[in-house]
Specification:
Blueprint: H1 7-19, H2 27-39, E1 44-48, H3 54-60, E2 67-72, H4 75-87, E3 94-98, E4 110-115, H5 122-129, E5 133-141, H6 160-178, E6 182-187, E7 193-198
Parallel strand pairs: 1-2, 1-4, 2-3, 4-5
Antiparallel strand pairs: 5-7, 6-7
Bound molecules: S-adenosyl-L-homocysteine and magnesium ion.
Magnesium ion (MG) binds near residues 116 and 143.
Length: about 200
């Protein structure tokens, strides 16, 4: 659990996200994610989509020996994340990369890869980073339901862009279901979360 002295700072980050429309994880989703980290004794995490550092901070606070690398392509959010991480004295444990994740090549290995960036690029993120996953590691993907739009019919979705995005999320879902190297379970928590466990 989050130490009580940090509660105020967490609240401030959440308020900032709300006011500035930064799509940080919902409470239910973050609770699910952090409990997985705890229960599976996860220590090394790669996050794609830092935003302002909220989920990175929450994951790092699960245990003092957790290390996180997180990638963000938006400069103002990246800078905000640096500031937020400093407030929690987590700069030694959270490494930020300011870059488009599709241009990032890493050699490190992680117990968990958390995909929470552009929802239309998830197949590419998965493919780019799955080689960085430790044996029996987890790839967790947020926003599989995308505010409930993924469960709607095409007629019900007015915006063409949104229909395209929903199609991409459905393709990604199929990609996960058909991926024989991973065992994937889908959960309704928060905005819909997929947990894919490497079989090898
Ligand atoms: N994980 C955060 C929320 C991330 S919101 C939290 O819960 O606190 C998604 C973020 O992904 C946005 O800030 C967006 O700028 C970033 N993003 C989208 N596509 C990206 C890409 N290709 N590479 C890096 N970051 C990306
Ligand atoms: Mg998300």
């Amino acid at each position: 659990m989050v130490d009580h002295i940090y509660n105020d700072e967490i609240k401030k980050i959440k308020e900032y996200a709300e006011i500035n429309n930064v799509p940080i994880m919902q409470d239910e989703g973050i609770l699910f994610l952090t409990s997985i980290i705890k229960n599976n004794n996860i220590k090394n995490i790669l996050e794609v989509g830092t935003a302002i550092g909220y989920s990175s901070i929450m994951m790092a606070l699960v245990a003092p020996d957790i290390k996180i690398t997180s990638i963000e392509k938006d400069e103002s959010r990246y800078l905000k994340a640096i500031n937020n991480i400093k407030k929690f004295n987590l700069e030694d444990r959270i490494t930020l990369i300011f870059k488009d994740a599709l241009d990032v090549k890493l050699d490190d290995k992680f117990d968990l890869i958390f995909l929470d960036a552009s929802k239309s690029q998830n197949i590419n993120f998965f493919t780019n980073f799955s080689k960085n996953l430790n044996s029996k590691g987890l790839i967790i993907t947020d926003n599989m339901s995308f505010h409930g739009y993924v469960e709607k019919t095409e007629d019900e979705i007015k915006s063409r862009n949104l229909r395209g995005l929903v199609r991409k999320i459905k393709q990604y879902k199929e990609f996960l279901e058909n991926n024989e190297n991973y065992d994937t379970k889908f959960y309704d928590y928060g905005d819909g979360i997929a947990v894919s466990k490497s079989k090898i």
